Prior knowledge:
GO terms for molecular function: ATP binding; phosphorelay sensor kinase activity. It catalyses: ATP + protein L-histidine = ADP + protein N-phospho-L-histidine. This is histidine kinase. Keywords: ATP-binding, Coiled coil, Kinase, Membrane, Nucleotide-binding, Phosphoprotein, Sporulation, Transferase, Transmembrane, Transmembrane helix, Two-component regulatory system. By secondary structure, the chain is α+β, with helices and mostly antiparallel strands. It has five domains: about 1-90; about 95-200, Beta-Lactamase; about 220-315, 2-Layer Sandwich (Beta-Lactamase); about 320-395, Helix Hairpins, CATH 1.10.287; about 400-545, 2-Layer Sandwich (Heat Shock Protein 90), CATH 3.30.565.10. Helix content is about 50%, strand content about 25%. It has 17 helices and 17 strands. The chain has helices at about 1-35, 40-90, 110-115, 120-125, 130, 135-150, 195-215, 235-240, 245-250, 265-270, 315-360, 370-395, 405-415, 420-425, 445-460, 490-495, 510-520, and strands at about 95-100, 105, 155-165, 170-180, 185-195, 220-225, 230-235, 275-285, 290-300, 305-315, 400-405, 425-430, 440, 465-475, 475-485, 525-530, 535-545. The strands form four sheets. The protein has a five-stranded antiparallel sheet with strand order 2-1-5-4-3, sandwiched between helices. It has a five-stranded antiparallel sheet with strand order 7-6-10-9-8. The chain starts with a helix and ends in a 6-residue tail after the last strand.
Amino acid sequence: MQIQTRSIPWIIIGNYFLFGSLWILLSDTLLYNLSHDFLSNRQIGIFKGWFFILLTCGFLYFLLKHLLSKNQEMEKQLIESEERYRRLVESSPYGISLMQKGKVNYTNQTGLDIIGIPTLEDLHKKQLSLVVNPEDTKRIRAILQQMEADPSSEPQTVEYQLVRSNDQIIDVESTFIPIIFKDEAATIIQTSDITERKRAVKELWEAKQLIQAIISASPIATLALDMEANIRLWNPAAEKIFGWRSDEIIGKKSQIVPEGEKDITIPEIIEHGHIVNKEVRRKRKDGSLVYTALSTAPIQDKDGKINGIMAAFMDITDKKQTEEALLKTEKLSAVGQLAASVAHEIRNPLTSVKGFIQLLEQDESVSDKAPFISIMLSEIDRMDSIIKDLLILAKPQAERLSSFRIDTLLSYVVQLLSTQASLYNVFFIKDFSNEDYQLFGEENQLKQVFINLIKNAIESMPLGGNVTLRLSKEEDVIIVKIEDEGVGIPQHKIKTLGEPFYTTKEEGTGLGLLSSFKIIENHNGSIKFDSTVGIGTTVTVQFPVTKEEQ
């Protein structure tokens, strides 16, 4: 507007000078050529002057009218443009301010609302140090000084804190833009309140940290897989349960499904939804198997699209072993109750039968039947031995508890079975460390346990070999290991050892191991079988060291 107004006089002067010069030059030349009469020329000159004045007035009138009309139109457009920009600035969700020479010349309503000051006049009364948090004042002042010193510098966006009129501290983000205003350097500041955004980001970060802490501290193996079944998350519990470190398996396919077993695919999980506590076997890094309870859930993005699967594996190996032990204990209890009844009912008539057969053995009239009588007595003795095993299972039993050395007991059993070992071409190797192997318990019952176990070891080696007895002590536990070089026991049969009437021998009853399990249990001990077919078997028996009560 100012530029157009200043140019109007120069436009008028220029046009007037050009038009007047042309008129004088052309009219004088024409007058000179048409008449040489001085009086006539003088009258024509007066007429020419008045005509020039009228013509000039008309020209100036139309010129001024055109220029003023155009100027008014431009002023109207400028006012409309200013109004549009004013409305745009006033309705902006951002606070927009104009600063020049350290003073706020303008701030829209949003800017005033952010600061918490009602009017621009009230803002003028505030110093920068009272509006900006003292910790940020120096940094913001340096930016403003740089903008005024170099208007061509690049805009800067920074986060800082403002102190509102009610002393509330808020987080803001401002973009500082250098401009030229009224021929002087100034700065436009566009500000937005990011307090809620920063609070949301903080809460999101804290929630993420909490979830990570829960997953890291959880004893449950937690895995996350993408839609291609690549592992994206592998927590410390997964490292402990399965053996792979996170850096060994993240980004790779899962390797925990045993060969020959069908894995639960991602499409199946998506189709059926959540899976809760499904018992599955999984493979460790060392190849061993672990029983787990599997739970799964789909991972969804913000639009509800499934982009992965979360899987949790709880190690239930101990639970399964406890259930098996409980089942075996229940079987032992049932067999014990049955054994007590059956043994007492059979033993009395069996004793009578044995007595009568022994009388027949002394009768010379049936001497030709002596071999048969001998067989009958032998079988009765075998039946009596089975009844004794049954009575061991019965409860309660009278115990003769005493303190004894288990290394001495094992040496006695070795000597007792040495003859049978020689028949099988089996040799004994004793590996006893120099410890105090004093144990408190029922010596005769434990003697029977080791007779059964060592006898089984001998009979498992029809081609001969070595039976190694290892005796050691760890803290308050005595450990006995019986190692043979026999045919071994298949893995699927190891679980059934000690069950009533289960045996791997053709002529066995299974009661020997059953009674051994019962005796070891009564001594608060444990027994474990490790076997490889064709290599041999190791039986590990452990007893807690207890002192005889005074």
